[in-house]
Amino acid sequence: MSLPPTTTPSGDEPPIRGRDDACPGALRLHPADDGSLARIRVPGGLLTARQAAVVGRVAEELGDGRLDITSRGNLQVRGLEAGCGAELAARLRTAGLLPSDRHDRVRNVVASPLSGLDGEGYADVTGWVRELDAVLCGGTPAEHGELSGLSGRFLFALDDGRGDVATLGADVTLIATPDGGALLRMAATACRADGAGADRRVVADDVAQRGAGGGGDTPRAVLWVRGGDAPRAAALAAAEFLTRARESGTRAWRVRELPAQHAVTTEGVAARLAAAGIDAVPQPDAPGPQTPQPPPAPGLVTGPEGRHAVSVAVPLGRADADQWRLLTALASRSGADELRMTPWRGVVLPGLSPDDARDACSALSEAGLVTAPDSPWLGVGACTGRPGCAKSLADVRADTARMVADTERGAGGTARGAAGAKRRAGSTARGAAGAERVAGDTAPGDDRNEPGPGTGTGPDPDLVPGPGPDPEPGPEPGPGPGTGPGPGTAPLPVYVSGCERRCGHPGGRWVDALATGDAGYRVAVRGAGRDTPEADSVDVTAEQLAGAVAAARGTT
Fold it and tell me: Which residues make beta-bridge pairs with 319?
């Protein structure tokens, strides 16, 4: 018997969760049309070369051979056969990728992917990542509470001070400061203290634009802590959230869902830290999230002491077996012996000599990965589509690949001049019902901007009844790779969806290409937090998609 459906607030009430979140994990597999799906948490996106090789063999021997990188820098294996769960878990445990069964789905940590590699930022936060993961999995309940009670959507972000992951809408954020410390920042509560409530569709944008108060009357908790205390302080802040969630009776999954009277406060977090022997200084005037910083550009990354890194974008976040083997081999030959997955579905290979880095760029480009900052793949995403999703009306990934190829060849003009393109001002009604995604529930860092599991069982479970799987939330709202923070600065991100649920679409302004059948798409620009397109939509064939999207992005 299934649990009751999740209820959606009327606007002035927090959501009342009738079930646990349905995010897949390494132990909780999700059945899809193309076999079961597993989501492997990789805190900070950090993988040793040996771990990467293990995951590659898992995908080839147990799944369909491909690996999806999510918007939280996690990995997904698709096409798993029934009954392989025990073997999958055993392999991951041996590789150190499943350190605690009870904490499998709570190890959601994004981190600045170039931290310690390019001389930017105030600290190398990779050490924070490993320490936080250890605390999450092994902390004593007496000090931290039982952190396995966190939902699979709860997110930690560790920013080295450059501001790249601090704007991804995490529940708990650590930001390195020039004095060797860290700002510990909690997400703002969406519901206002006066009971008026905030429109949940625009909460994340509101928070990003208005600073510490999050646009409402419930300020976010911000404290300064010593750098050495930062990971433990983040875990204690999460424990404070769990206490508030229990008191509220709402079974909230994320900090912003708490009712105002049960918000996580500076005083509450400070008291918990003090009880654990951690000095914390409230920062009432600390600014909120600023303009999102761009993700690492594809190509060479120059670092100190003659060491380089290579930043690679993975088209649609999916690497085939050959591509993953190449990434693993290059990582194993580097001085760092690791690779880093990013919240923008890319990979960074650190520790290379200048010559090796240039050779790696060439080999990766030949393998179909993106190593140039002007690639037409940047800023383009798509849901899983057919055949993996039963609800999809098209093979959107194949159509997206053709769209990018047409763009590269300069053949996109076919749609711009298509006299038969059908413009519809009122076409938003059909798309609106499935487009209500909370700006923070699927971005990088939130796994919303993930292409979620892409199983077609629904977008954000906040809005879709039933116990379907949850897309990974990822960076919250914000532009995709290769895009700027707003209109007029760079082409808008593009997302191609197989159905009106639009699983995994980006936040902010974006170009929506929605499948309407086997060979048709409706293209429109959607604004942050709005269900209604900013202008009339245009109906085109799959062959005309490149031109219509280019016109909508303003690149023609």
Answer: 67
Average pLDDT value for residue range 512-534: 82
∠ Cα 121 122 125 (to 5°):
85
Question: Is cis: bond before 387, omega within 30 of 0?
Answer: yes
Tokens matching residue 342: 């990013």
Q: Which amino acid is at 300?
A: L
pTM value is 0.83
Q: Which of these, 318, 380, 375, lies nearest to 347 by C-alpha position?
A: 318
Number of Cβ atoms within 10 Å of the Cβ of 23: 26
As a whole number of angstroms, the distance between CA 169 and CA 167 comes to: 6
Locate 218 and state its tokens: 């419930």
φ/ψ (deg, to 5) at 115: -60, 125
Residues 6+ apart with CB under 8 A from 417: 547
Query: Tens digit of pLDDT for each residue in 70-96?
Result: 999 999 999 999 899 999 999 999 999
Query: Using CA atoms, how far apart are residues 228 and 176, in angstroms rounded to an integer?
Result: 11
Question: Angle 358-485-505 (CA atoms, 0-180°, nearest 5)?
Answer: 90
Q: Render pLDDT for 224-283 as a digit per residue (tens, 0 to 9).
A: 999 999 999 999 999 999 999 999 998 899 999 999 999 999 999 999 999 999 999 999
